[in-house]
From TrEMBL:
GO terms for molecular function: ATP binding; ATP hydrolysis activity. GO terms for biological process: response to antibiotic. InterPro entries: AAA+_ATPase, ABC_transporter-like_ATP-bd, ABC_transporter_ATP-binding, P-loop_NTPase. This is ATP-binding cassette domain-containing protein. It is found in: Cell membrane. Transmembrane segments: none annotated. SMART domains: AAA. It is a peripheral membrane protein. GO terms for cellular component: plasma membrane. Residues 312-337 are annotated as: Disordered. Residues 7-241 form the ABC transporter domain. Residues 327-337 have a biased composition (Polar residues). Keywords: Antibiotic resistance, ATP-binding, Nucleotide-binding, Transport.
Amino acid sequence: MNAHDVLRVTGLTRRFGSVVANDDVSLRVRPGEVVGLLGHNGAGKTTLISQVVGLLRPDAGTIRVGTVDAVRNPAAARRHVALQPQAQAPLDGLTPRAAVEIAGRIRGLSQARARAAAEALGAELDIEPWLDQRAQPEGGGLSGGVRRLTAFAMAVAAPTPVLVLDEPTNDVDAARRRLLWAAVRRRADAGAGVLLVTHNVTEAERIVDDLVVLDRGRVVATGSPARLRGTQDSALRLELQLAPDGEDPTTDDATVPLTPLRRTRAGRRVLLTIPTDQAAAAVTWAGALRERERIDGYSLGPATLEDAYLSLTSPAPDGASDGAPEPTTSRTESAHV
Ligand SMILES: Nc1ncnc2c1ncn2[C@@H]1O[C@H](COP(=O)(O)OP(=O)(O)OP(=O)(O)O)[C@@H](O)[C@H]1O
């Protein structure tokens, strides 16, 4: 255990019947750090954070929040951890201002400081027009996005050493997502350790320091976005858009004039990671495929973190969406070549 970790999870295992939702998971978060937790639906992300905040007991492993043993003493740990849960906060009958003030008061702020926090967060997240609008039952009164932003504001109303955010950008529009990401980064820059569950690999890349990729309960990769992209920093991504019901022209190695470092199928997209010196060959080949109408189109650009993430994780089950912004990632099949 490093004395400077604000959160340290070691060997965490949690089963539900025969499902091993967390299988020997270890991770650490230091002050000032945003650690992104990535994984498809059912990978075990919510199970992990439920244990961190004491809502679920592990079958094995340890969780330390600062110097507190969070498994033995969840109440003490919770004083150091703020959570924005995945489910929408029950706001019915409350205004966002009142909800944030109450959250601040519960965390020990004075009435005046809680009021100031609500006002400041309203501006920071651009939800001022709705601050005094009352939430009604069954989603009335406030939009899903404003509810989500209010839940974030409640979590950060008072500073805590650890901040756990479970998909904070769901339902939030693009402009306010930017504000939210900036607000998360600001909390870390002020000294908090942030554990961030997200499906939005591309956006998260800009604010996370480290990533932990979970697949079927196990950690399959950890490291900075640059490290996870790894060799892809000097690689290109050739994306082929397959025709509906068209054959995938990349499956027969003998007819592919490239040596892909990695091949990932995502719905009707095939992503090939290729060395940069094969750019010209790739354009010639993909251009010819399009000419012969074997593909709908193609693009060539720098390899991204999403490519690495898709290649690290197992295929999502049929029909399951991993919630990523691109609709074609709803069903993935990955293969190493
Ligand atoms: N209370 C429970 N009872 C039985 N099985 C559960 C329970 N909670 C989670 N699971 C199972 O544990 C596995 C991990 O689920 P978990 O909710 O942690 O995944 P997740 O990564 O948070 O998924 P999502 O992105 O959909 O939120 C899944 O197979 C899920 O069905």
